[in-house]
């Protein structure tokens, strides 16, 4: 499989497109959007079956709610446990959707993802491995099992723009970079949110009646903690970044920031633990202000808050340093991979 990315596509669509007009979602008519997308999904799917994967992020949650409103039982929703999620995430998300009356099946694909990521350190190869595992292996299996002809996913406009511009290959971009999902994976793709940005998705979430714990959730990328591990993704390194994520999310949940995360670097630094030298791991704390993730600035957290987070993070076994990332986007991106 080839995807057209990098210098070529960057030439075709210069960075200027990222700075295009400010977000248009301020005056959007959510009711009309829902009505139009519901009708469109019904028309596209007809009497067939569609599947979708719910990650618990706001995009896939809106997609799931919208899809069920349009397709009812013709849509089968799966939560893919890829081993890259936050602590306790599968159980938490399944419970919320159960309360909403939307059935979700849990799929254990931990071995598939860990196997595909083994030994890979290059960021784009990592993203490619995740895309292949999701779209070819796991969704391919689910399509065969359910007889589905369609896969619905929550790709949004920012994902498309950044991938097409060659910034970063988002895991859920296919046709926009020359991949024909029907030919490549054996199913058609439905993208009801592809004209929206994050702020628009949140408005639709509210209009669909999603609980605030979903509608207001901070963004979390599809490739999950793999985008927050520089270097190889292993079970041990996932455990470290997962523990740091729990601390950061607990500490910053009332910060009002757009997104906050913990990143595990691939470097080590000398430190002292129990009076002895330790060559320990380094966690980066990132907390940003943004409207739609196209541009971002670091949040001015209080020194006290940062010291508290640092103290907790350096209690994680093997971690002896915690750094705060001040870099805006651009030149940085939000995630590290
Ligand atoms: P970056 O790191 O590209 O992130 O500045 C911008 C926003 O997108 C999220 N993100 C992703 N979401 N699939 C997704 O669904 C991806 O591959 C992906 N990569 C980044 C990121 O968390 C941020 O909110």
Short structural description:
The chain has 337 residues and is an alpha/beta fold.
Molecular structure report:
It is built from 12 helices and 9 strands. With 337 residues, the protein is α/β, with parallel strands linked by helices. A hairpin with a 7-residue loop joins strand 7 and strand 8 (297-298). Helix 2 crosses helix 9 (198-207). It is globular. The two termini are 21 Å apart. Bound molecules: xanthosine-5'-monophosphate. Residues 159, 162, 168, 170-172, 219, 221-223, 227, 259, 293, 329, 333-335 line the site of xanthosine-5'-monophosphate.
From the alpha-carbon coordinates, what is the Rg to the nearest angstrom? 20 Å
SS-based class: alpha/beta
Oligomer state equals single chain
Query: Which regions have little confidence, pLDDT < 50, spanning 5+ residues?
Result: 1-23
Q: What letter string, H or E per element, gives the SSE order?
A: HHEHEHEHHEHHEHHHEEEHE
Mean pLDDT: 91
Strand content: 15-25%
Query: What is the number of helical segments per DSSP (H or I, 4+ residues)?
Result: 12
Main β sheet profile: 5 strands, parallel
Indicate the overall shape. Answer: globular
């Amino acid at each position: 499989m080839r995807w057209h990315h990098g210098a070529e596509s960057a030439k075709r669509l210069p960075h200027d497109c990222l700075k295009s007009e400010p977000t248009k979602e301020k005056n959007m008519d959510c009711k009309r959007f829902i009505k139009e997308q519901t009708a469109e999904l019904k028309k596209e799917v007809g009497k067939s079956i569609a599947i979708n994967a719910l990650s618990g992020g706001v995009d896939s949650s809106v997609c799931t709610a919208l899809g069920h409103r349009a397709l009812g039982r013709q849509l089968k929703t799966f939560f893919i446990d890829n081993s890259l999620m936050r602590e306790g995430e599968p159980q938490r998300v399944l419970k919320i959707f159960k309360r909403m009356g939307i059935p979700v099946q849990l799929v254990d694909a931990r071995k598939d993802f860990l196997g595909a990521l083994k030994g890979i350190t290059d960021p784009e190869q990592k993203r490619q491995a995740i895309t292949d595992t999701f779209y070819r292996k796991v969704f391919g299996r689910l399509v065969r099992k359910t007889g589905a002809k369609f896969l619905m996913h929550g790709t949004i406009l920012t994902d498309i723009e950044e991938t097409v511009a060659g910034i970063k290959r988002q895991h859920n971009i296919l046709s926009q970079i020359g991949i024909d999902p029907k030919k490549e994976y054996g199913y058609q793709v439905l993208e009801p949110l592809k004209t929206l940005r994050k702020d628009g998705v949140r408005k639709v979430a509210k209009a669909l009646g999603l609980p605030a714990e979903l509608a207001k959730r901070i963004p979390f990328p599809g490739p999950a903690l793999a985008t927050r591990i520089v270097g190889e993704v292993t079970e041990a390194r996932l455990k470290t970044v997962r523990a740091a994520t729990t601390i950061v999310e607990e500490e910053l949940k009332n910060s009002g920031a757009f997104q906050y995360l913990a990143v595990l670097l691939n470097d080590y630094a000398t430190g002292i633990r129990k009076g002895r030298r330790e060559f320990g791991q380094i966690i980066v704390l990132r907390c940003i202000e943004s409207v739609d993730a196209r541009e971002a600035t670091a949040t001015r957290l209080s020194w006290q808050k940062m010291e508290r987070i640092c103290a907790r993070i350096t209690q994680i076994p093997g971690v002896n340093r915690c750094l705060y990332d001040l870099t805006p986007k651009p030149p940085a991106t939000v995630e590290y991979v």
